[in-house]
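This is your field. Have a critical look at both lines of this record:
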Amino acid sequence: MVKIGYARVSSKWYRSEVQLSELKRQGCDRIWSDTTQDGNDRGETLETFLADVSAGDVIVVSRLSAIADSIAELVNLLRQVHEKGAAFRSMSEPWINTEGGRAETVLDVLSGVIDYELGLADLESRTVEDRPRSFGLSKGRPKKLTATEREEALSLLSMGKTAAEIGRMLGVSRSTISRLKNMLPETG
C-alpha cells in the first residue's frame, strides 16, 4: 500500500505549506502538488495524477475542496479511484474514507445527495413558478382589455373599423387593437 497525498495550491485559499505538512504527517510516500492557476489545466493535472495511481494505493487529501469543486466532481473522481482499485481518504472529512471496501457505500450516499439536491432545486423552481397562481395571479403583465372588450374590438374590426378608432373608443393604443387582428377568423 502506497499513500499518495494530493495538495491543490492554485489560490490564496489553499495554503500549500499547511496542506503539505499535514500530508507528510499522515505518512504519505509521495505528494502531488497541483499548482495550476487555470481551472482547465487543473483537469489535465488531475488526470496525470490519477494515471500514477495503482491498485491498492490510498489517496490522501487534507480536505475535499483541495481535490473537487462540487459533489458531482467528487463522485466522478471517487469512481475513477475505485475503478483503479485504490482508496480515498480526506483528513478533514473522515466520513469520506473509502478504505476497507466502503467505496460503494460512499458513492451511493453521495449520488443520493446529488439526486436529493436536484429534486429540491426542481421543487423550488416549481414552487417559484406556481407561487403567483396560488394567489390568483398570472404571469406577465395584466391584460389591457377584458374578454368582453376583446370580443367587442374583434367585432368592430370585422365590420371594417380601424384599429385607431377602436383604440380611442376603448381607451387603449392602436397597437393593442392591431395585435387582436391575428385573432380574427380567416375569410376568403
Q: What stands out?
A: The first strand starts at residue 3 and ends at 8.
